[in-house]
Structures are given as structure tokens and as C-alpha cells.
Amino acid sequence: MILDTCVNDNNYTFNTTAPVSLGSIDVTPRNLAGTVGADVVLPCRSSDGQLDWAVSHDRGKTWIDISRGEKVNNPHYNIISTEAGEYNLQILDLTLQDGALYKCLHWFKSEYAYVNLVVMCEYMFRSLFPQHANN
User: What is the reported pTM?
Assistant: First the structure.
């Protein structure tokens, strides 16, 4: 089935049951979709100190650290801060495996917020989101 090869199967697709945030961290929007090969920016901000990013490919059972503040441990990712308190995660050259649950967190305060990322082939994305056909 073509759908199996064009949409990641993370089962987080626009999950409305995941907590929006805990504490002073804000991620808006918290559900994002991207296409294979594109770049995407996951938003995160807090007025209360440095934030970190982690990713889970198993529905939050285990987490892999992506960044500590602005230090990123993988060239596939960048931290973009356009103003104080922003720690947006840029993911370069999306793959289906990038579709996952991401967590922006403040380690020392045990505060966090989730971002769901769904990755799909471009033709699938354009058929589901026709308003983006010219973007």
C-alpha cells in the first residue's frame, strides 16, 4: 500500500490527548506536518531559562536527547533563536523517521511541552492540505 511508504507510522497524528505544556514552556502550534526532504521548525519558548529538546519514536516510552540549550549533538538539527526565550528546533532534510513526538523541556524544573510531527511524501501532503499547493 502506497500510504505505508509515504506517511510515518508514529501514531501521534494530531494527538489531542498529549499535554500541551507543563509550566512556563509554550509550543504553538503543537501539531505539525512536513514533507520528506523539506526543512521544518518546531517552536518552543519560555521566559524562564534555557530549554532542551528530546525525541521519542516509541510514544514517549524512551527519549533521546537532541540538544542541551543551543548545543546540538546531530548535524540534522539546529536551534534557532530569533529572540530571547526562543529555542526552536530546526530539522533539516526531513525523512519519514523524523515523524515522532518531540519534547521541549527545562531539565531542572521538570517542565516540558510536546510537539507532534507527522512526515509524509509531498504528493500525500498536497492531497491532504490543498491550501498549501502553491507553497
Answer: 0.79
Architecture of domain 13-127: Sandwich (2.60)
Distance CA 99, CA 67 (A): 17
Each domain of the chain, given as residue ranges in start order, spans: 13-127
**Torsional sign, CA 99, 120, 17, 105:** positive
> Beta-strand (E) ranges in the chain?
31-35, 40-42, 52-56, 64-68, 71-72, 77-80, 88-91, 100-106, 111-120
Q: What angle do CA 122, 73, 92 make, to 5 degrees?
A: 15
Give the residue-averaged pLDDT of 46-59. Answer: 86
d(CA 131, CA 113) in angstroms, rounded, equals 28
Q: Angle at CA 83, nearest 5°, toward 79 and 89?
A: 20
Q: How far is CA 25 from the centre of its chain?
A: 14
Residue 74: pLDDT band (50, 70, 90) is confident
